Amino acid sequence: MAFPAVKDKSVFNGIYAGAAGGQIEFVQTLELTKFDSASNKYTLANTFALPNGQVQAQEVEVDAAQLMTKEKVAEILAQCEAAGATLGETTVPAGTFKTCQVPTQNGGTVWVAEVPFGFVKEIYFDQDMNRIEVELASTVSGQ
To answer: pLDDT above 90 covers what percent of the chain?
Structure first.
């Protein structure tokens, strides 16, 4: 499986937990829909579906250099422990993956793995300190 590639698609189950209380479950889908070789940019479709049927979708252009490649993931996994992160296995709805658990600057964590978009789980905090957690439910490689 090579990535990034057009038709790479990952579906994540998520939970948004408000800093003031309450939580909302959602499904997030990331999909690369186009590639412009002249600009070296992909079109990324980012869709959020809520349990009440509401859907929020947006498309953004992303420079290819900003996306994870199979080579970048391999390097992160190979240097994981030397960089002070935790190498292990992580089980999410999509399966069990070899991961590097990397703390982020905002107090969150990302689990890097060899899948399109480069991660199988992420916990992060937005500017209002709301907690967002996503876990990979399924993935399809465009290649």
So the answer is: 90
Model confidence pLDDT, tens digit, residues 97-116 = 999 999 998 889 999 999 99
Distance from C-alpha of 39 to C-alpha of 137, rounded to nearest angstrom: 31
**CB proximity list for 61: less than 8 A, separation 6 or greater:** 36, 39, 41, 42, 43, 44
Quote the CA–CA distance of 48 and 55 in Å, as a whole number.
6
Decide: helix, strand or coil at residue 18.
coil
Phi-psi region of 111 (alpha: psi -120 to 50; beta: other; left: phi over 0): beta
Indicate the SS3 state at residue 5. coil
**What's the CA gap between 67 and 119, in Å, rounded?**
11
Contact 41, 17 (CB under 8 A): no
The verdict on pTM exceeding 0.85 is yes
